[in-house]
Design brief:
Arginase, Chain A; single chain; about 35% helix; 2 domains; four-stranded antiparallel sheet; alpha/beta
């Protein structure tokens, strides 16, 4: 498949950064540029690209211009001591219709994932999350989606697809490939009770901002479970990221946003990242663009430090613990990586579900979940998955 037809090359002026003794990103990237054309996809592991589309970015027009503003900041950063190969593919141009853009984005993401390349998408509205979900649908891959957002973006069922309604559209897709949705950082005054009730009914995981910020390490197993991480910049407080029409005084700090990116990219399971809703129109001194460039840096840092420790059948790289409980005499299976000391739980299910939901009946967790089971209590995250599989 030739995805190059969807992309515009990186502007020459963005690449015109003088080489120094210590190269910056602009000097080290594989780039889609006018002189060399679209790069060979066998030559890189991570593909960063923009989407110049904001027709469905509700009340936040201007996000189509985000891509190059982020590049201006990203290109000046120094890369780490990494082995990973990184490409900038340029920008997906806006199609004649919004559906054309969605198709180009979905096709590009499914191709990259299918070739074991991690796409990092920058720019555009949060509605683009729907197009990325469609990429997994095209691959017939069951997906865990983690969204960092102060809202749930459910909208009303009869509303058009936009940045405030994309989640309800994903939920209503038939056949459906969404195994789990996790929201990190919702702010209660932005979310109505019926929306919270729906999340509970669907066995989705939602976590208030205060719950996560009180102990950011608690978010690590949550993002470790993601196939796709979708990050709305409005989840970051306005002091650190003013570049959004509805920037809020409350939210994650810039440092916390970078840590979440690193946690997510450390996971062997993660196959796509999207950074959305940045609007340069509202960005004071390019502060948000700087932060998003640093978030990309931390994603690459995480990817470079992957440990290849996702549990596999009969692997001797894990210590296995079986903890019987009053409700489950067969016990809850815990797996601890000998390499990283990270923990997982296994939900026992039939062969059909093990095949259909491969990679989803094994749940990232913490030592605290193990202690909970030892106290004859069922960990919440294990119970959520158990109810979906039974």
């Amino acid at each position: 498949m030739d995805i190059s037809i969807y992309f515009e090359p990186v502007a020459d002026e963005l690449l015109a950064i003088d080489e120094t003794t210590h190269p910056r990103f602009a000097n080290t990237l594989i780039t889609h540029n006018r002189r060399e054309g679209f790069p060979d996809t066998s030559l890189f592991d991570i593909a960063v690209f923009g989407v110049a589309e904001d027709r469905a970015a509700l009340d936040n027009a201007g996000t189509a211009r985000a891509c190059d503003e982020i590049r201006k900041q990203w290109y000046t950063l120094f890369p780490g001591s990494w082995d990973v190969r990184i490409a900038d593919l340029g920008n997906i141009r806006a199609g004649h219709t919004l559906s054309d853009t969605y198709y180009a984005l979905s096709s590009s993401v499914s191709f990259l994932i299918g070739n074991r390349i991690l796409p990092i998408i920058i720019g555009g509205g949060h509605d683009l999350t729907f197009a990325i979900y469609k990429a997994y649908e095209h691959l017939e891959q069951i997906v865990n989606m983690v969204v960092v957002d102060p809202r749930f973006d459910l909208g009303e069922s009869q509303d058009e697809l936009n940045s405030n309604t994309y989640l309800s559209r994903i939920i209503m897709q038939k056949p459906n490939f969404l195994f789990n949705f996790t929201n990190l950082g919702y702010q209660t005054y932005y979310v109505d009770q019926p929306a919270l009730d729906l999340m509970k009914k669907l066995f989705f995981d939602v976590y208030r901002l205060g719950t996560i910020t009180a102990d950011l390490k608690s978010a690590e197993p949550l993002v470790r479970n993601a196939d796709f991480l979708s990050f709305d910049v409005s989840a970051i407080r306005a002091a650190d990221a003013p570049g959004h029409a509805q920037a809020s005084p409350n939210g994650f700090t810039g440092e916390q946003a970078c840590q979440l990116m690193r946690y997510a990219a450390l996971s062997d399971k993660l196959s796509c990242i999207g950074l959305f809703e940045y609007n340069p129109v509202f960005d004071n001194r390019g502060l948000t663009a700087q932060l998003m460039a640093q978030m990309i840096w931390y994603a690459i840092e995480g990817y470079n430090n992957r440990k290849s420790d996702f549990p596999t059948a009969n692997s001797d790289a894990f210590v296995k613990y079986i903890v019987p409980t009053a409700d489950f005499s067969d016990g809850i299976v815990f797996l601890k990586s000998r390499k990283t000391d990270r923990w997982w739980m296994e939900v026992l299910c039939g062969n059909e579900n093990r095949k259909k939901y491969a990679g989803h009946y094994i749940i990232p967790c913490t030592y605290e979940d193990y202690k909970t089971a030892c106290n004859n209590e069922i960990p919440d995250r294990w119970w959520q998955v158990y109810q979906k599989l039974m």
